[in-house]
Amino acid sequence: MVAEIPPEYKNGFANGPPKPKTYRNEAERRRYEHHEADVVIIGGGVAGCTLAVALGNQGRSVILLEKSWKEPDRIVGELLQPGGVRALEELGLRDCLEGIDAVRTYGYDVIYFGTGVKIPFPNDANQKTLEGRCFHHGRLIVRLREAAAANPNVTVVETKGCLDYKSTHTGDVLGVQCVTDGKQDFYFAPLTVVADGYASTFRKEFLPIAPVAKSKFWGLELIDAKLPMPGFGHVVLGDFPPILIYQIGEHETRILIDIPDNLPSASVANGGVKGHMRNVVLPSLPECIRPSFEAALEKGGFRSMPNSFLRPVTNKIPGLMFLGDSLNMRHPLTGGGMTVAFNDVVLLRDLLSVEAVPDFSNTKLVLKQLSKFHWQRKSLTSVINILAQALYSIFAAGDPNLKVLQRGCFRILDCLQGYTSIHNF
User: Fold this and answer.
1) CATH number, domain with residue 190
2) What is the pTM of this model?
3) Do 404 and 339 belong to one domain?
């Protein structure tokens, strides 16, 4: 269960996180007055907030830094697989899925040239179908931030321009330097966690890899769309890159349209992205969805996000670790990103527990545990990463050979309809 949230910590801190009238403990006083903690986390998103709560629940003193505590408005991070729901429950944060108009999901409907195949999630031990959730991304983030702020061992701070602060003697990361209220500021901890998302500024300095993006998801919000199979995500396939559709609220449905770089039907000569949507996407959608899509198309407000791939590497910098999209990304077609992040936090909660690592100042022991994290996470994340990249390659079908694989993949799913289910990731 999430701790009771005081009124001043609700509504996403639209005016910035408040300072408490009285300190809840001595560690909180040190966090506010001396900017010292056991761990500093950069990024108040999916991974950062969840890790802050997990470590705070173990008695660690945590400072959570975020450049803006206003409710984010994004077109990705809206679909959570059953494995992610289970991880939130294990972290005591499942309540964060309540009160945000989340929609229960039970699997996928794959539509190939107008023919649909139903692929449900598997059953649990009690033969009950497992459930995912779809929602407005920002609403979940607000709830996670509220849970972090309500934890007596976590202090949330709004600050910008974070840079690493390293020892001039050892090179160990000692914390971060940033700008708070227009003034230079510092926050110190023996462990700094970078969870600043897909466009991480720290990644460029510390990791020898960079994300690769060959396409973008362009998103629209459909109002009162009629879906072929309510309660299921829809993947639409044909002679075009894949289209993903899922309901995110009582009245709202998200449609994400994959547009690879240099796609001819989205060229300027063919009307750009809007031309591709009108000339290619609209005629290919199930007839029941077309009216709401056409209305959204006329309204405009197109937004996009790069579809990035980033392979994970072992954390080897003393005093620093990466988490979430700053560490590892895969194509969002399968909606596995948040499930990976939440399960990573479950694993880190155990590997970095007080029993396993009494003091984060023992950087050798921390690095040893992070090496274990790199390998142990593969049992789940490698499945999600490989599945996402492989399915996208097949579903995008950019050449004739992949078209054959695409057709074969769909026919296998069609033959197994009623006998197969999506593995519970």
Assistant:
1) 3.50.50.60
2) 0.91
3) no
